[in-house]
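[scheduler] slot 2 assigned
[scheduler] job type: sequence-to-structure, two independent chains
[scheduler] chain ordering preserved from manifest
[runner] begin chain α
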Amino acid sequence: MGNRSAGDADGLLAGRGPGAGTPGTPGAAAALAGGVLLIGAVLAGNALVCASVAAERALQTPTNYFIVSLAAADLLLALLVLPLFVYSEVQGGVWLFSPGLCDALMAMDVMLCTASIFNLCAISVDRFVAVAVPLSYNRQGGGGRQLLLIGATWLLSAAVAAPVLCGLNDARGRDPAVCRLEDRDYVVYSSVCSFFLPCPLMLLLYWATFRGLRRWEAARRAKLHGRTPRRPSGPGPPGPPPPEVTPDDTPDATPRPLPPAADAAAPPPADPAEPPRQPRKRRRAFLLCWTPFFVVHITRALCPACPVPPRLVSAVTWLGYVNSALNPLIYTVFNAEFRAVFRKALRLCC
């Protein structure tokens, strides 16, 4: 990975050059107001998610460990990244602090964005394992696998962001008034690692999980149909019960619990804290918010001469950060248990 200057190919924080706005103008005032609202929404919503899982035993499920990890990434983003991003936007994209603080900001931005999508990938891995090897999944309960996956997501995210803190961003001729990722190769590398590789993997795993669930449902229906006794045809009350037969003569029509080996194709019971629509909505929100951002920034890194308006760069960055405020809304709308806990918490606060 070379150390070429990225020039105008701004990094993972947009609006770092002329055109992002001018202090004292309506655009700067709008950026300040929007930034304050966004930070408040991210902090309030995700803090409520974490508090709800901590306080409500019904929400303390292995799947919700991933939700808490996602909320933690959003909270850190609101505390460590968004205030400086909004301040820079209000200042017209001019960086007024030290280059070292800029590098720390870039590294935190890369790590937290990567942690968010890696957590979504971890959820897809967890769901796939639950369907592919359900008996093993059920035997290894207690959330140990989930905690291991969460730890791996954060370690990998930190590894992706580490080069920025190790001096990669300290390019010769660097403009101290502009905060950006200075190495164009690293912009491509981090975009591939953070988005363009994990997203297809996540979608593939969810597709495989969906197919596995459909096959299991078809097999379950066929098994139930084959074990269900047929009622006598024709009008009139049902006849006398059939004579007793041995299992060697005909299948026993009396429903009995299946032995463990016969239930090998059945996935674990659905997690009440993770209804089917919730992960789908969360994936869609993430992809809709972050796909424009990564497409724009990898385009600028690969094609520095391509005309990309600074306003577009700023807009897609704001759109990406808005995703951090959407997850609590998704939980509230599509999860009855989260909705009930949220109502209880709001009644206590009000």
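[runner] end chain α
[runner] begin chain β
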Amino acid sequence: MENAVDVIVKWSGKEYKISSLSENDSVYTLKNAIHKETCVRPERQKLLNLKLKGKPPDDDCPLSALKLKQGFKIMMMGSLEEDIADASTPPEDMPEVINDLDIEEEEVAIESKDVYLAKIERRIRDYKVNMLNEPREGKKLLVLDIDYTLFDHRSTAETGYELMRPFLHEFLTSAYQDYDIVIWSATSMKWIEEKMKLLGVSTHSCYKIIFYLDSSAMISIHTPKYGVVQVKPLGVIWGKFEQYTSRNTIMFDDIRRNFLMNPGNGLKIRPFKQAHLNRDKDRELLRLAKYLKDIAHEEDFNSLDHRHWERYKPKKKSNKQDVKDGSSTSQGS
């Protein structure tokens, strides 16, 4: 007699009981049952803690081989088709999405073209920013990508923590002392929100994100060599928030083309991939946290070359500042 298999799927903050299976059913049958409950298609499902000999089981693997206990909780990542439409469907004026180009900013001169400035003005006017926290007076601005910058969204793992870039929370905690932080991803808002929950960013007590921007805040531009690409123009933020300008804004992204509109404000971060192999040796965020701290007192970021950030040396204090500091110390002793 076949034994029944009852499991619970945790997804998007909710739990779904799957009780229509037997141990002779396959993983694909399980995925179809999950599809019926959640409407997430089988090919979109990532079952994080479902393992066979330390690896994700194939779809034809029988459930009996997994030795699941009754009521076993499966952690799932996956998006509904309507939630990822913005990320998977190119805009009408973008005939082709170019995959991971490392475009040098010298190849295009686009920052002041009227057609792109008009697109930015439309985003400033029409794009609605949902404020999560208020900007703080006197803070500079850090704009962060997600995929391959903070999170490896393609490797397999049992928990979201294993896909998170090492030292993420330490990095954000350090940056928050001097910078307001914005997350800007070329995906849908729903997916951004889910990722920030998964990584514990949206609820962390040591720092706060002021808002998220999704793919609808991006614009398409034409480059002579690669044709039409989508970019993240910082002018959208600057047009909505007067306290942020090119003088006090820096953007981290693993793809250079995303900051083609503002090459002087972009820093191309090394992508975080193959998390299972690299999570124990990746130190990129620690080094970048130091860089952000070192440049926090620069009056104008336009004077910096972020391409050579690893060679940056903080300016030494002037004698006048040293005397002032020494005087303050003497008075307090």
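[runner] end chain β
[qc] chain β: Residues 83-101, 321-333 have pLDDT under 50 and may be disordered.
[scheduler] slot 2 released
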